[in-house]
Amino acid sequence: MINEDLHKRFNDAVNFVNDYTDPLPADLLLKLYAYFKIANKNFDNPGSRTPLINAFKANALFQVKRISIEEAMEKYVELVEKELKTL
Which residue of 20, 24, 44, 71 has the fewest C-beta atoms within 10 A of its own C-beta? Predict the structure, then answer.
């Protein structure tokens, strides 16, 4: 069962990223993408029309495939707090 505090912090971090308007480095976006997908148990096809982008997304998911949903949520929040909220 996911802790309510973690769930709230994760949703707040997702909303923060969704509202963020400055450009973000590709490596950061890929990490956020992978943690988000794991946290939401969404392992569908990346869906980009560009094969290279799909390959990068698939690689990002492959790198974190063994972490739990809770760990993915925590890492997403930590990444947002470390990389974005300090800008």
Answer: 44
